[in-house]
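User: Before I run my own analysis I want an independent prediction to cross-check against. Here's the chain; please return only the structure tokens and, at the end, one sentence I can use as a sanity check.
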Amino acid sequence: MSEMPPPLPPEPEGHHPAPVAPEVTTTDPIALGTVAAGVLAFLCSFLPFYRVSVLGMSDSANAWHDLDGKGFLGWFGCVIALVGAVVVALPLFKRPLPVDRDAAAVGAFGLAFVLLFLAIFINPFSGMNAGGLCDDDDTGICKQMLDGVSFGHAVGFWLALVLVLAALLANGYRMLKARGRI
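Assistant: Structure tokens:
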């Protein structure tokens, strides 16, 4: 005959087991929207971020295709946006921060916006010159071939930029409102 295990001892007074799922303490729409914007901006970095078109054929790369180090601004801006989302999300899950949440979020999203704004002018494809083949071209034929090349930004870049700007403005508003300036 099998014996039953002994019953568990009672819980000590004031001890509560950890909750299975984190409990959100507020439904602040600005905070929830900011978290969503930061996460979505990070996910946009996996969409087509940069594009190049050569003689009617086009290709694109996401922010993580770091071509000669010029893609750093795109992917790092999206990572910083994710950090901003985490900064806003932690107090929602009763996790205190050692710094002011609003100021840290404005700083993170502000830095992310500056990085992505700079990425408008620094496209990883823009430095291509046919793999260096045009360096020794005295005739100019190679340069003429590259005249049909255009560089730009794709949908992921523009979505990330708009999301980061929206999160920056929303957190700036919340910070000014909390300090009584609005």
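Sanity check: The chain has a mean pLDDT of 81.
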